[in-house]
Amino acid sequence: LRLLNDSLDRDIILNSPERKGDFKPLMFLFTDGEPTDEWGAQALALKSRTQRKLANIITLGCGDGVNVETLKAISDTPPLLIRDVTSDAILQFFKWVTQSMKTASTSAAGGREGVANLPPPPQVIQVAL
User: Fold this and answer.
1) What contacts 7, CB < 8 A, 6 or more positions away?
2) Distance from chain centroid for Cα 60
3) Closest Cα to residue 71, out of 63, 84, 81, 85?
4) Residue 61 and residue 50 in contact, taking contact as beta carbons nearer than 8 Å
5) Which residues partner with 126 through β-bridges?
6) Where residue 104 falls among pLDDT bands split at 50, 70, 90?
7) Beta strands of the chain (E only): which ranges?
8) Can you tell me the distance from the alpha carbon of 91 to that of 123, in angstroms, rounded to the nearest whole number?
9) Among 6, 39, 47, 128, which residue has the fewest nearby CB atoms (within 10 Å)?
10) Residue 71: what are its φ and ψ, rounded to 5°?
């Protein structure tokens, strides 16, 4: 999370009258939800950014013993879970993400930002509410 904060400060180009800036990045965190280092301060720093802010941090809890509360503390979006982590499950996840992004960008290009009808997640993915 510290590296992500550093990268956002260093790498994101903001809009200006002379230049089109970067879109807000999308970051995926695959984890069991049990960090082995100090993460709380960096998660708070990510959530409280006012410039070069993330559009979304997508947390994907992998395995049976995922600490969902940790994932909720890192991201404002509901955590996603893959209990049986296989190459096929990961492939289905990224196909779904790709389709969702395509649908959302098409809606935004048509002036319908915020009202895209995203496809439901594949059965291998559960949303932790």
Assistant:
1) none
2) 8
3) 81
4) no
5) 81
6) confident
7) 26-31, 56-62, 80-82, 126-127
8) 12
9) 6
10) -60, -40
What is the sign, positive or negative, of the torsion defined by CA atoms of 65, 68, 71, 75?
positive
pTM of the model: 0.78
The two structure tokens encoding residue 111: 């002036």
Per-residue confidence (pLDDT) for residue 84, from 0 to 100: 92
CA 53 to chain centre: 12
Report pLDDT for 55: 61
Mean pLDDT of the region 50-61: 79
Distances (CA, A) of 103 to 8, 10, 129: 26, 30, 23
Asked if 31 and 61 touch (Cβ cutoff 8 Å), the reply is yes
CA distance 22 to 63: 34
Give the position of tokens 């089109």: 20
Coil, helix or strand at residue 16: strand
